[in-house]
Structure formats: structure tokens, C-alpha cells
Design brief:
The structure is a single chain. The protein is built from 7 helices and 14 strands. By secondary structure, the chain is α/β, with parallel strands linked by helices. The strands form 4 sheets. It has a 7-stranded parallel β-sheet, with helices on both faces. Strands 8-9-12 form a 3-stranded antiparallel β-sheet. Helix 3 runs parallel beside helix 4 and helix 5 runs parallel beside helix 6. The longest helix is centred in the last third of the chain and has 13 residues. It is globular.
Length: 203
């Protein structure tokens, strides 16, 4: 098990990591969305990739704390976005008291689409950001359905703050390079794991 340190990489650098896997995961996640849904998305490069393809659907309302996600949704289609206010980080996400207050104004959310810094069988989904974690937990509590977008590089890693246990999500979407042993263990616990075929580099 590997502990994840707080992320100091720039948004641009993170966007260049596991691009094929994130794209494949995002495209599969789009298939779970229904027109007219109220979605919540937190900050992250995989959720950003998901947002890029959201224009395949119409009449979607999105709640997010990410400026980059807001911009790409508005640029690519006619879906509505609510950007949660608050302190803005260098990577373009908002958090803190104001963001949580804004979120508390919303009623129930149809679906929460999120990513994480690490996932293990014992601790579920974790993040290295305390500020973002509080918002992630609030979004998860308001959602009727929760979908985790997790590429293979996050498996077996654990960050400091817990977002959710495995048992509290509805679907985990990952790529085929994720460790089969962990996928089997998750499925034995009743977790729906949707594995997307992705060829290894050079393969």
C-alpha cells in the first residue's frame, strides 16, 4: 500500500498523466447519464475529461466546484452549470466555507461523479486535500447515485482523508490495467466494477 502525498503538480502536468485511460473511463461514464439529470462533479482531471463529453446529453444541470469544468461545459454545449463559490486554488477549484454554504442550498442530486487520489479495499476512496474532501463528502451525501472514475494508477494507494467506503458507491469505472485481484475483491463485496479495455503502452 502506497501513501499519497498532497498533490503539488500543476493542472497541466496532471492532465498529461494516463490520458488514454481517463478518456476511456470518461466516455463509459457518459453512458450512465440520462437527459434532464442534476449532476454533481468535483474537481479533478478525470472528471474534467468526463465534462468534455457531456454535450452528448441535453438538459443537464451540473453542480461543480471546478472552474475548468465549468468553462468546458459552457463552451461545448447548452447544459446549465452552477459553480460553487469560495476560495479558488491555483488548479481552479473552489472550497471552504462559502462553497459548502452554496452547496447546502441545493436539494437532492441525481448523480455524483467523482475521482480520488487513491482507493484500497480497507479504506475505500481517499484524497490528500482536506478542504476538497469536506465538499466531496457533502456531495456524496446529497446524491441518489455515486459513480467513481478511477484509473489504474490510483489502485492500492491511500491518501490522508477518506471520501467514502466502497460500500457507499454504486459504480466504479476503471481501466483494464487495474489490478485484477483488487477488482475481484471489490466484486466479492457487491461493488459494480465496470472495467474498460485499454491497451498497455507499446502493446
Amino acid at each position: 500500500q502506497v501513501y499519497v502525498k498532497p498533490d503539488r503538480d500543476t493542472w497541466q502536468k496532471r492532465m498529461s498523466i494516463s490520458v488514454r485511460e481517463k478518456t476511456a473511463i470518461a466516455l463509459r461514464a457518459i453512458e450512465y447519464i440520462k437527459n434532464g439529470s442534476l449532476l454533481a462533479m468535483d474537481s479533478g482531471t478525470t472528471t474534467y475529461e468526463f465534462a468534455k463529453h457531456l454535450n452528448k446529453h441535453s438538459d443537464i444541470t451540473v453542480i461543480t466546484n471546478d472552474i475548468n469544468i465549468t468553462e468546458v461545459i459552457l463552451r461545448n454545449g447548452s447544459n446549465q452549470v452552477f459553480l460553487l463559490g469560495g476560495m479558488v486554488t491555483t488548479n481552479g477549484s473552489t472550497n471552504g466555507y462559502l462553497a459548502k454554504q452554496a452547496l447546502s442550498s441545493f436539494s437532492q442530486i441525481d448523480m455524483y461523479v467523482f475521482s480520488c487520489d487513491g482507493v484500497t479495499i480497507e479504506d475505500g476512496f481517499t484524497t490528500s486535500s482536506l478542504e476538497n474532501n469536506e465538499l466531496k463528502r457533502m456531495l456524496a451525501e446529497k446524491a441518489l447515485k455515486r459513480i467513481a472514475l478511477v484509473d489504474h494508477t490510483k489502485f492500492g494507494k491511500k491518501a490522508l482523508f477518506k471520501i467514502s467506503g466502497l460500500e457507499h458507491i454504486d459504480v466504479l469505472i476503471t481501466d483494464s490495467m487495474a489490478p485484477q485481484g483488487m477488482i475481484d475483491q471489490m466484486r466479492e463485496k457487491g461493488i459494480l466494477v465496470d472495467v474498460i479495455p485499454v491497451a498497455e503502452e507499446g502493446g
